[in-house]
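Lecture notes, unit on protein representations.

Consider one protein chain, 180 amino acids long.
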Amino acid sequence: MRRKAALGVMAAAMLAGCGGGGPSLSNAPPAPCPRITILADGADLTRHRDGAVPDIASMISDARLIGFNASCDYTRRRDGVNVSISAIFDVERGPVATVPRVTLPWFIAVTDANDGQVIDRREFLTPAEFGPNANRVRIASTPVVLPFPAEERLVENHNVRLSFQLTPEQLALNRRRGAR
């Protein structure tokens, strides 16, 4: 019993020495972040069988870009900010789907504060696989890291836009039916 008590006191003493004395990381101001949003017209991707009337009977898949996970962290030397973004999708398999997997084309665009100029644009493909007897799945993309200079004005004066990569017909469908 005495040995257990002595070990407990030693462990507590060792832990008490951790993190003391120096400046706390929690007191450091957080890294600045750009404004991150999903483009309303590009939040839905509905695919239909080629040549068919676009309705539920010809639907292969219906996907929605429903959100994202994001974090902004200074680089090791604090000379830059890395913005990490992972898109979140809800995907439904349509009645004419013939395979248990779909690939979702999407992009991230970095613009200036007024959306007047596209500074960077990157395209991605995220696979979505349906389990046995499953017609819906929620997935997150692999995180994408966007580097920014550390100067706050430069980071916060940018917009980051997420959207599906749509054909003109898919974009027209989204605009006709409106936000869902």
